[in-house]
Amino acid sequence: MVPPGDRASARDVFVRNLKVASADAERAGLTLLPEPLFDCYHVGRVGSDVIARLEGLLAIVRPVQIAAMPSRAESDRGDLDYRAVFAAIGRLTYSGWTSCEYKAAEPTADALTCTRALDG
Is the pTM of this model over 0.90? Predict the structure, then answer.
């Protein structure tokens, strides 16, 4: 799996945009296997509307990955409203995994408790 990223976080990132990667694969007669990761942090870092992009790509992505934006700390802090993200995920009837990849600012058990609280 080659997850999309952003140049601010990783200068040598190969895939920068899921929509472009999906279109490239379709033109080549390929499918994206395994289903690509939707990384809310990287989508937000490049200035995209995370919820709008998620709504447009949720049918082709698994899992959804979360981290605070721009700090990449636990998801209950930062500029990205994960309550709204989780509400959109619920509205879109997503049944895949949601994963956390963050730079810990507190013990893991505390961070996961805060993240669970975001999912109403």
Answer: no
